[in-house]
């Protein structure tokens, strides 16, 4: 037996398998609600105008490709943390490193938890983005789930959440989605954020916020409002930021890990060292694009305007879908689809119903019935409503 015979393929990714099945389906009117990528009404994921303009400027003006710093260009961290935190946390308690995407930030954050508190438990919402538990397991931390989603109402089961979090102890990390919860689309209200912040602070736990969709829900500031309340209250936090969606630069791998701690200098050193150990210098191109946009009033306004159009189109699709369903079933049972925010909603269909919608109607959603709302357009919404009703959801 050779060394590599011991390897096992990673767990197959259900979303990638779904993408392949969709590609192979010859039906012309098939609908892809699978992978978490924003699409416009024609099904394209265009490069945003401000991104193109910033890239042109970078190509023209960049005079060197020499390494940045281990934490990335500090101006990127300043600009992006400003967008996320809105100046709320005291600068002297913050440290930050650029990372390859939001995933890189989640990974580095988990590694920091392991360095600081190897016996901690990481608390994840049930359900959550599948890469959360996978990364926690891979870095070797313990994890537990807290109740989050009430399938009957399509809303957050807040009483259940607080009951589960009652078992959090000092040094544990509580992972929260900053906005646009993936996969459910159900989000905490501000008073609920306040209560969670209180609990985390009282217990001496670390708030770990993953924010990957700022600007996709209720707007750039509104989407960060809960997180800003939280950093006002808790002594220690980690914030994993992704620029993949709101700047539409998925493949550029642009993210930032922000830490809030008492001794930011020590934390900064630990974060830079984690970058050094894992990949040395973080990717720069996407970070430079983001920094260029955020630092230029005209580009920033253009970007925010285009993002607002993206947000508005998803809200419009949500409202249309809720309306089409109400017209068909004569009740507001699916009203939660218009209340949810972001790209995703958990429909609450059984795996059999998901399979029926795929087989009979060419509607592709993830097995847990997560739908990417951005995969719809005004013409496909009524067909989806038809499929949902016909499958008996
Ligand atoms: N967190 C959540 C909840 C996500 O949905 C995603 C994107 N699927 C990410 C983090 C990270 O995205 P990326 O690494 O592409 O920036």
Give a description of the structure.
The chain is an alpha/beta fold and 393 residues long. It folds into 2 domains: 13-47 and 300-390, Aspartate Aminotransferase, domain 1; 67-295, Type I PLP-dependent aspartate aminotransferase-like (Major domain) (Aspartate Aminotransferase, domain 2, 3-Layer(aba) Sandwich). It has helices at 14-24, 49-61, 74-85, 101-116, 131-139, 158-165, 190-203, 225-233, 264-278, 285-294, 297-329, 336-339, 351-361, 380-390; strands at residues 31-32, 94-99, 121-126, 142-147, 149-150, 155-156, 173-177, 206-211, 237-242, 255-260, 344-346, 363-364, 370-372. The chain has a 7-stranded mixed beta sheet with strand order 2-10-9-8-7-3-4, sandwiched between helices. The model has no long low-confidence stretch (mean pLDDT 97). The site of 4'-deoxy-4'-aminopyridoxal-5'-phosphate (PMP) has 14 residues, from helix 4.
């Amino acid at each position: 037996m050779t060394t590599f015979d011991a390897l096992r393929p990673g767990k197959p990714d259900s979303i990638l398998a779904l993408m392949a099945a969709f590609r192979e389906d010859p039906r012309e009117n098939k609908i892809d609600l699978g992978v978490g990528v924003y699409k416009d009404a024609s099904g394209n994921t265009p490069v945003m105008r401000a991104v193109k303009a910033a890239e042109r400027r970078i190509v023209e003006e960049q005079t060197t490709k020499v390494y940045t710093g281990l934490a990335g260009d500090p101006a990127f961290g300043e600009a992006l943390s400003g967008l996320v935190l809105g100046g709320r946390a005291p600068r002297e308690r913050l440290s930050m490193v650029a990372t390859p995407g939001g995933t890189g930030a989640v990974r580095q954050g988990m590694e920091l938890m392991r360095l600081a508190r190897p016996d901690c438990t990481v608390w994840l919402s049930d359900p959550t983005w599948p890469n959360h538990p996978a990364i926690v397991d891979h870095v070797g931390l313990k994890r537990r789930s807290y109740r989050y989603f009430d399938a009957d109402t399509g809303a957050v089961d807040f009483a259940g959440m607080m009951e589960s979090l009652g078992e959090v102890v000092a040094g544990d990390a509580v992972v929260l989605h900053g906005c646009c919860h993936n996969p459910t689309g159900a989000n905490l209200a501000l008073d609920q954020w306040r209560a969670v912040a209180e609990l985390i602070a009282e217990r001496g736990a670390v708030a770990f916020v993953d924010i990957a969709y700022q600007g996709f829900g209720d707007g750039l500031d509104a989407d960060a409002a809960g997180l800003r309340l939280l950093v006002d209250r808790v002594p220690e936090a980690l914030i994993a930021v992704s620029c993949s969606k709101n700047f539409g630069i998925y493949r550029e791998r642009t993210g930032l890990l922000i830490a809030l701690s008492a001794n930011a200098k020590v934390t900064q050193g630990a974060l830079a060292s984690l970058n050094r150990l894992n990949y040395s210098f973080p990717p720069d191109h996407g970070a430079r694009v983001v920094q260029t946009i955020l630092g230029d009033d005209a580009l920033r306004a253009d970007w925010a305007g285009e993002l607002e159009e993206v947000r508005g189109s998803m809200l419009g699709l949500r409202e249309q879908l809720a309306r089409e369903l109400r017209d068909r079933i004569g009740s507001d049972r699916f009203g939660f689809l218009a209340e949810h925010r972001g790209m995703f909603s958990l429909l609450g269909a059984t795996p059999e119903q998901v399979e029926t919608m795929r087989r009979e109607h060419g509607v592709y959603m993830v097995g847990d019935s997560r739908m990417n709302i951005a995969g719809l357009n005004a013409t496909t919404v009524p067909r989806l409503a038809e499929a949902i009703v016909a499958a008996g959801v």
